[in-house]
Design brief:
Elements: E1 20-24, E2 42-43, E3 53-60, E4 63-64, E5 70-72, E6 75-86, H1 92-99, E7 104-107, E8 116-119, E9 129-137, E10 140-154, E11 167-173, E12 176-178, E13 181-183, E14 186-190
Antiparallel strand pairs: 1-2, 1-9, 3-6, 4-5, 6-11, 7-8, 9-10, 10-11, 10-14, 12-13
InterPro entries: Bxb1_TTP-like (IPR058154)
Pfam family, one: Phage_TTP_17
Keywords: Plasmid
């Protein structure tokens, strides 16, 4: 059976909106792919062409019989992460996500000096937040919602004359319980194709 090309999704960044947003923990979650996000969801700035990496890991134990054949694979753990590489290295919202809001201060420009950003690098744990990513293909939209996400690693940051300063951040996406269901990330996809009236 040939591939149904209408089901193939090649993501790109929205032209008039951001790609990744952050909101305080507990903010009301989106319920579809296209409804505008609440004001609490703040655009985190541009990301690199590495895109959005969603890693899903299942830890299983292989149980073998006396003959050495695997007869069961009970699962002991499941985890999920999102990784993005921020490219706006002096964007206040990017810096707040990477270093923590309380570690970033901004002083507006004056007649005597430019705007000043002060960033403290320290060991304080970074807070949990709601993270939302959005990509598009044509009129279709894919939105991923991580209700409890926390930055756990930041890759080494290089300052060289041949590249932009980037912050590659991995977010741990913790399990969220919603009524009778639980998830680490909930994904909404709207293909953008409206039903036609006969």
């Amino acid at each position: 059976m040939p591939t149904d090309t209408s089901k193939v999704y090649v993501p790109s960044a929205p032209k008039v909106k951001g790609v990744i947003y952050r909101a305080p923990l507990g903010t009301a979650l989106p319920t579809d792919a296209v409804t505008a996000l609440a004001a609490a969801y703040v655009d985190q700035g541009g990301i690199s062409d590495a895109g959005i990496v969603n890693a899903m890991a299942r830890e299983v134990q292989k149980i073998k019989d006396f003959g050495g054949k695997t007869i069961a694979t009970p699962q002991s753990d499941y985890s999920e992460t999102l990784k993005v590489e921020f490219v706006e290295a002096i964007n206040l919202e990017t810096l707040k996500t990477v270093f923590g809001t309380s570690n970033v201060t901004f002083t507006p420009a004056t007649a005597n000096k430019g705007a000043l950003i002060t960033v403290d690098h320290n060991s304080a744990p970074l807070p949990e937040s709601v993270i939302v990513t959005e990509t598009v293909q044509g009129t279709g939209v894919r939105r991923q919602v991580a209700p409890i996400a926390k930055p756990i690693t930041v890759d080494d940051v290089s300052q060289v004359s041949t590249d932009a300063v980037k912050y590659a951040v991995t977010f741990e996406c913790f399990e969220y319980v919603d009524g009778d269901t639980a998830f680490h990330i909930r994904e909404f996809i709207d293909d953008g194709v409206f039903a036609t009236t006969p």
